[in-house]
Amino acid sequence: MKKVLFILTVLCSVASQSQSFNDRFKILMQLGSDAKSMDNLFKEWKQKEPSNPELYIGGFNFYYQEATKEIMSLTPSPTENPQYEVQDSTKKPVAYLGGQKTQNDSLFNVSQNFLVEGIKKNPKRLDMRFGKIYALGTFNRFNDFTRELLETLEYSKKINHKWLWSNNEPLKDEINFLKAAVQDYQNTLYKNNEDGNMLQLAEKMNSIFPNDPIILCTLGSAYLMDNKLEKALPIFEKAYSLKSDDTIIINNLALSYFNNKDYKNAKRFFTVLLDKGDENQKKLAKEKLKQME
Known about the structure:
Layout lengths: L1 H17 L2 H11 L3 H14 L4 H15 L2 E6 L7 E5 L5 E9 L3 H17 L4 H13 L3 H17 L15 H18 L3 H14 L4 H13 L3 H14 L4 H13 L3 H14 L2 H13 L2
Antiparallel strand pairs: 1-3, 2-3
Helix pairs in contact: 2-3, 2-4, 3-4, 4-5, 5-6, 6-7, 7-9, 8-9, 9-10, 10-11, 10-12, 11-12, 12-13, 13-14
Keywords: Repeat, TPR repeat
InterPro entries: CellSynth/LPSAsmb/PSIAsmb, TPR-like_helical_dom_sf, TPR_rpt
Protein name: Tetratricopeptide repeat protein
């Protein structure tokens, strides 16, 4: 029996050594391993493969997950989160059981530090940069969120937008991918009323891609939100010259003319919206045209 156990132990040891560190990480994640087990793995992994991007992605994923765990709690009254109603013998609600998301800043910082180090060793890995930025947004760290985006855009210009993605594979259609992703991040800033950060990012994008009508439209909108009407109007005019069939651009151009009391041009573009706009744009156009009668 002892001999059999010894053979099994040796075989398990050999199997463990033959697995990649990434495979071992995935197994530990599935098993729900604690921080101590993970730290031991990361320490060994870093000694053997210090430049492997999967090490830093794995460390980020583990500690980000630990930083954003959900805990179960009983509350005397319902909350916005989905909950189970706890009733007494008369079926009267007495408490509510549900999950509550927590955010641990210390663990979050550990997760971010993994990507800081990983990006230093793998600066062209755009997935690592975007993972870092996304996580900053979920913790409402919008100044850091914006700073990281600006640094990413500056580096993108430096490498002529030749990014790598997972498995170090070249990113396909990299410029359009980058533009679309940054537009989504702009929407995040807009929804969180981060007008100043949104304007910084819009100006940076326009400096890199000066003749993109969608980027121009976003920049013009950022100027409008910052009450810089004199800057917004020529931006929307340029966007319209590049994409005259875009009703969002037409809508913003019409509003800019209206706000600048250029009612002749405002009527012209609001009239176009009555014909080509969506329901909300048509409604706005009717209201503004009525005001200018």
